[in-house]
Amino acid sequence: MTEKATTTPASGSAARGCLAEIPNPFACGVVRSAWEKDVIDVEAIHRGAFSELLRLVEDRRGGVHGRSVLLHGFAGSGKTHLLRRLRLHLQSSSGEFLPFVWVWMQTSPGMKWRHLRREFIDNLIRGQVDGQNQLERLFELAAGEFEARLGRLADRNLQVVLEHLANKRFVRDAAAWLRGDPLPESVSGRLGLGHMEFDDAAAEDASRRLIEELALFLRPTAFVMCLDQLEQLQAHPGDRTGLFALADLIAALDRIENAIVIGCVQTEMQRELESVLMQYALDRFRPLGLGELKATEIDLLVRARLQTEPRIAACRPAGASEFWPIDLERLRPAAEPYRLVTPRWVLYACAEQFEAAKGATQPRPSLEEFLRSEYQNRLEQAQRELSPERSTVILSDGLPRLLHLRGFGIRREGIPPWLDHELVSGEGDRIGVAISHETPQARWRKLKRILEEWQREQRSLVVLIDVFHPVGATAARTGEFLDKLAQRGARRLTPSKEALAALDALRRLLGDVESGDLDFEGGTPELSKVEDWVRQNTPSALAELLDEITRVEPERRLRSELADLLAEKKVLSVRDAAAALGSTPEEVERCARENRHHFGLLVGAEPVVFEKTPAGAGA
């Protein structure tokens, strides 16, 4: 039985002085990446789940194509920590080398393959194994059959790039191409590359095919693909587009014979997937859950942290428990019946006990103070990392998150391919958002298609020009198309770098709450409270951008109000309708003419407007 910590008043005072200069060994409770270093790991925690992951790896190594795994648990249960343990185990193993890829999945559903491609390549190039990055190690393993493996590939550009990298030629540009970055024509020519298409649909499909081709090149070597925080594919909880994107992604990767796929979600999302997806989609993966800590696991975690600071034992009063100054009884489920006893909560509770033992207890920050500090940290990171490669995903993923908080519905499916998403207001107004970030040739082709297919009566249109990809003075055709769209009522906006950085910081903050990765008092803050804080603290540069995107033109407002009026009155003279709406007869008549699928108009001495029905469609 574990002895409970006891101290006498005299020894307690001396102990506080002794502990005063010792750093709190429980202070860090979140593992944010499987590539983190210097993390204390207690292998007995979640040993069963870890064994299941190892079994998945060994089955795939042996040619058995078992189902992918969806690792789930509550916030702070240690999912990312377990992936890190798997990475270390594979890299220290004396068996066959297996590349390890860990991807933090905060992106929009429409960019999931481009995001995965970039992160896949970054992992292979940055992950060091015995002084080599993983790609170099793979080239070394394939040396005897390199040409034969290249011959499997259908993509000539990929063949050329892999040859350059294997021979350490044009390494920076070749790696940029692998990530999906558009290269200047002069650089592409120097590398010997053919044409590439960079419009959204083509780039997304090309990224999926490149991952499949790379996997084919690697065979028979298997590789581990960890997709962490998959719930971040959702713009908001309940977003079914994100759920289906998650299922499609796992299903496509599961079909790759040498891919060992491990996804991570919170338990709540696992339940949502089971209630929404069809059985054939659920059959692509099997759930593997992480439960609460058992009493023995709590003891092992506390002991491991205390042992990182040998000076604590020297301060321990005579007769005190080996766990001093921690009272283990306060960490048991019975002591906290409404708490999930996760590793993160145990570390938080121990950190507070340790500070109290030092006599250094500080007032807890309020949620508002905590969020302000977290936002500032993310803003500084966003400002450092803001780049042409990141701006598009910030807009594509961040805008739906923030606009959802303003009460807009977000549609990503069933819309024209030249739109990134469509906003639907509470009054039924529809606003299409097209993000223009392509190469110059792809941009003018996309704008030409928008000009041909956009129908103003169906939705208004906002074209966002990426500040990192401005329309240059020499882009005459692009400028011409933008001018024509403006003449038809489309709005052109260029988000500032200040607005982009704020959007990136807030999307990360919201995403971390939704995925349970924002550590507050050993758990995660309530999403609704964080959303309220974001609404009240959106920086002015970003708020102005959101206002401009969602501004409804007077013509569209008049159409909505006229539709409501005629739904009640059915038929009115144009004069009476104008009086009821506070408009002019000319504006009402023009609105009826421009929206013939909504309204009928009889022109005569006294023009009449009426609600259009199928029976009256020919009137």
Overall radius of gyration:
29 Å
| Mean pLDDT value | 88
* Strands ordered across the widest β-sheet: 2-5-6-1-7
What is the number of beta strands?
15
Principal-axes shape call = globular
| Fraction in helix | 40-55%
Q: Give the low-pLDDT segments.
A: 1-10, 615-619
- Major pleated sheet: 5 strands, parallel
The percent range for strand residues is: 5-15%
**Terminal CA distance:** 89 Å
Give me the number of helical elements. 26
Report on this model:
By secondary structure, the chain is of the alpha/beta class. It is 51% helix and 11% strand. The longest helix is centred in the middle third of the chain and has 19 residues, at 200-218. The chain is globular and about 105 Å long.
Characterize this entry briefly.
The protein is an alpha/beta fold and 619 residues long. It has 26 helices and 15 strands. Helix 7 runs antiparallel to helix 8, helix 18 crosses helix 21 (497-514) and helix 25 packs across helix 26 (585-594).
Topology:
Elements: H1 9-19, H2 47-61, E1 68-73, H3 79-92, E2 100-104, H4 112-126, E3 128-129, E4 132-133, H5 134-141, H6 146-151, H7 156-166, H8 171-179, H9 185-191, H10 200-218, E5 223-228, H11 240-254, E6 259-266, H12 267-276, H13 279-282, E7 285-290, H14 295-306, H15 311-315, H16 343-358, H17 367-385, H18 388-405, E8 409-411, E9 421-424, E10 430-436, H19 440-453, E11 460-465, H20 476-487, E12 491-493, H21 497-514, H22 527-537, H23 540-550, H24 554-569, E13 571-573, H25 574-581, H26 585-594, E14 599-602, E15 608-611
Parallel strand pairs: 1-6, 1-7, 2-5, 5-6, 10-11, 11-12
Antiparallel strand pairs: 3-4, 8-9, 9-10, 13-15, 14-15
